[in-house]
């Protein structure tokens, strides 16, 4: 399973980049964040626990190409395998095109979790949209 979402924003690339890399801004629209856009940084996100999920997600920053691309591993207590999240930013005439790709779901159990991630990413991208409008 692969999750891929592309959204256009009426905001400059630097504004969108800050929204996905600055831990204070991430904490406003995404989850409470301990995050730095530095290769090798071990980050942690904390959301509201749901069911057997403790609300915690963690990983390691793999790629930082400022204003262009950010990639990191992604793991939670209900996941059996590390997955990978990549954000790609492209400037457009009216702002920024942002593509989110989440890969690495393996086996039936991960596919079920992947479905929940798909729903979550939809919610979080709506949050990012609202954050960038404010």
Concise account of the structure shown:
By secondary structure, the protein is of the alpha+beta class. It contains 3 helices and 7 strands; from the N terminus they run βααββββββα.
Number of strands: 7
The best one-word shape is globular
- Strand percentage, roughly? 35-45%
Order of helices and strands: EHHEEEEEEH
- Spatial order of the strands forming the largest sheet: 1-7-6-5-4-3-2
Low-confidence stretches: none
CATH topology: Alpha-D-Glucose-1,6-Bisphosphate, Chain A, domain 4
Structural class: alpha+beta
Described by strand count, sense and barrel closure, the largest sheet is: 7 strands, antiparallel
* Number of helical elements: 3
Helix content: 25-40%
List the topology elements.
Blueprint: E1 3-9, H1 13-21, H2 23-29, E2 32-34, E3 42-46, E4 56-65, E5 69-76, E6 83-92, E7 95-103, H3 107-133
Antiparallel strand pairs: 1-7, 2-3, 3-4, 4-5, 5-6, 6-7
Helix pairs in contact: 1-2
3D structure, described in words:
With 134 residues, this protein is an alpha+beta fold. The protein contains three helices and seven strands, in the order βααββββββα. It has helices at 13-21, 23-29, 107-133; strands at 3-9, 32-34, 42-46, 56-65, 69-76, 83-92, 95-103. It starts with a strand and ends with a helix. The model has no long low-confidence stretch (mean pLDDT 94).
Essential attributes:
single chain; 134 residues; alpha+beta; Alpha-D-Glucose-1,6-Bisphosphate, Chain A, domain 4; 7-stranded antiparallel sheet; 3 helices; 39% strand; globular
């Amino acid at each position: 399973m692969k999750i891929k979402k592309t959204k256009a924003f009426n905001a400059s690339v630097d504004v969108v980049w800050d929204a996905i890399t600055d831990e204070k801004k991430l904490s406003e629209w995404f989850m409470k964040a301990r995050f730095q856009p530095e290769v090798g940084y071990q980050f942690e996100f904390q959301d509201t626990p749901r069911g057997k999920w403790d609300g915690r997600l963690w990983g390691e920053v793999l790629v930082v190409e400022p204003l262009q691309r950010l990639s990191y591993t992604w793991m939670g207590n209900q996941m059996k395998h590390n997955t990978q999240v990549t954000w790609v930013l492209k400037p457009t005439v009216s702002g920024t095109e942002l593509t989110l790709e989440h890969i690495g779901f393996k086996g039936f159990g991960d596919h079920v979790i992947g479905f929940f991630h798909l729903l979550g990413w939809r919610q979080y991208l709506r949050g990012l949209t609202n954050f960038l409008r404010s």
